[in-house]
Write a structure and sequence with these properties.
CATH class of the largest domain: Alpha Beta
Number of helices: 17
Structural class: alpha+beta
Largest sheet: 5 strands, antiparallel
CATH superfamily of the largest domain: PAS domain
CATH architecture of the largest domain: 2-Layer Sandwich
Strand content: 15-25%
Number of strands: 17
Distance between the termini: 183 Å
Radius of gyration: 51 Å
């Protein structure tokens, strides 16, 4: 084999020396002192390997160095590790990747050596050796094999193929590449798909995939349960536009083509009547929805979409009922003729912050709501009788039993109103107080004894003076 390589090198060197002038077979044979028939055969092999080019000049064939990359150089640049064996399993050719992959020292010459005598890892595997032997014996063989290297846990893909050498002799080509990263990515992808499938099947929220025309492509079990269906076949007869009462909203989401949150409604009676979808539900249901397009790998407008949805009908009705009650409470709170105060206890009942008051309280206390909310009771009204009021509030806070407070004044003064209180604890932990202005009654009670004294004095003055007789 080394003699062949020497002849090839001499021919190529001569052609490069005379380039760009072409040389005929006879001229090359004469210059190198070689047999013309041998030179002709060598040139055919060099031409087939891409090392030389040939052009005709009349009857003559003129040869020049190849202007394209030689096959041998291409072979050496391949990323796969490749070895070519002769019929006796001796190495004819290897590329750089083979040297690196097998960890062979660059100074070591393995050309011409028996592959099985080199004690190369991977090729020590009996199964791989047996497969190579089967190719040599023209038996049935595996075109591909995978090998796991125990010392590194690397995975290799080996490909086998019979070949024919330049001189027509049979040989074998073995190609191998490290597919560890690809295998790991494949496992990771399978695990990811399994996770996604698990989420799809077990998520409590409904998930529906559909095409741009509304055709339903897939739906999870939760969506069937929410829609009152037994299996996916019942849903296949429908369309995403049929399920939603707001077709225009869905079309707009598709047109925008981006993730969005919205609310959709479904009329199950209409769905059953017009679309023949046998839902067990009735009436109108409301759903909170997350809409998302399914992005394409190559970009461009998406053709498939998905919605993640959950039933909020009960919550929606509850919010509506709560809003109604809140309106009713606020109307009562603001329009009642009695004052209403809401306190938040702080410091274990040592102080109380104004949380809310109604219009009647503003009139009774002669202060605006904005001047009281967030402020402390005993700081705003230091003239409140203390500890009577504070003790009563603490008792209500701890015992949760309502109490009446005797009429009191928030500020000292003849014109300050006298206010009667009924205080009680709310479920929120706050203290509420109903207030009634009883100033007139208090003043009448205070003036009653004075009026009685005045009447008695007047009556005494109108009585005739007593007459005394001397006996």
């Amino acid at each position: 084999m080394s003699d062949y390589q020497d002849k090839f090198s001499r021919i190529v060197d001569l052609l490069e020396e005379r380039s760009p002038q072409g040389l005929s077979i006879s001229a090359i044979a004469r210059e190198l002192g070689m047999n013309r028939a041998s030179v002709s055969k060598y040139l055919e092999m060099l031409q087939s390997s891409g090392d030389v080019s040939m052009r005709r000049f009349g009857r003559s064939k003129l040869y020049t160095p190849a202007q394209r990359v030689p096959l041998s150089e291409l072979f050496d640049r391949l990323s796969n590790a490749i070895v070519i064996l002769d019929a006796d399993l001796h190495i004819l050719m290897v590329n750089t990747s083979f040297i690196k992959t097998l960890g062979i020292h660059r100074e070591r010459n393995i050309i011409g050596a028996s592959l099985f005598n080199l004690n190369l890892r991977i090729f020590s595997d009996p199964a791989i050796r047996r497969n190579i032997e089967r190719i040599r014996q023209s038996d049935t063989y595996l075109a591909e094999m995978q090998h796991i290297e125990d010392s590194t846990n690397h995975i290799y893909l080996l490909e086998f193929a019979p070949t024919v050498s330049h001189v027509g002799k049979p040989g074998i080509m073995v190609s191998l590449r490290d597919i560890t990263a690809w295998k790991n990515a494949e496992v990771a992808l399978k695990n990811s798909e399994k996770k996604i499938r698990t989420i799809f099947e077990t998520a409590p929220s409904g998930i529906v995939f559909f095409a741009v025309d509304g055709t339903i492509l897939n739906a999870n079990r939760a969506s069937l349960r929410i829609l009152g269906l037994k299996d996916f076949q019942e849903l296949m007869n429908g369309n995403i536009f049929d399920i939603s009462c707001y077709k225009g909203k869905v079309l707009e989401l598709i047109r925008q083509g981006k993730v969005a949150e919205t609310e959709l409604a479904c009329d199950f009676d209409r769905l059953r009547r017009e679309q023949r979808i046998p839902s067990t539900r009735s009436g109108i249901a409301y759903f909170d929805v997350v809409f998302t397009p399914i992005a394409l790998d190559g970009g461009g407008a998406p053709h498939e979409f998905a919605i993640l949805f959950w039933d909020v009908t009960a919550e929606r009705l509850a919010r509506k009922e709560l809003a109604f009650k809140e309106t009713r409470y606020r109307s009562f709170f603001e329009n009642t003729c009695n004052g209403v105060l809401i306190y938040e206890p702080v410091d274990g009942g040592g102080e109380y912050i104004f949380k809310d008051i109604n219009h009647a309280t503003e009139q009774i206390l002669r202060m605006k709501k904005g001047d009281l909310i967030g402020r402390k009771l005993f700081e705003v009204f230091p003239d409140l009788p203390d500890p009577d009021v504070r003790d009563a509030l603490i008792r209500v806070l701890k015992t949760e039993k309502p109490e009446f407070l005797l009429p009191l004044q928030y500020r000292k003064g003849k014109d300050s109103p006298w206010i009667w209180h009924y205080i009680f604890k709310l479920p929120s932990g706050e203290i509420a107080s109903f207030m009634i202005d009883v100033s007139d009654a208090v003043r009448e009670d205070a003036e009653g004894p004075l009026r009685a004294c005045g009447v008695h004095r007047k009556h005494s003055q109108e009585q005739p003076a007593p007459v005394f007789h001397d006996d």
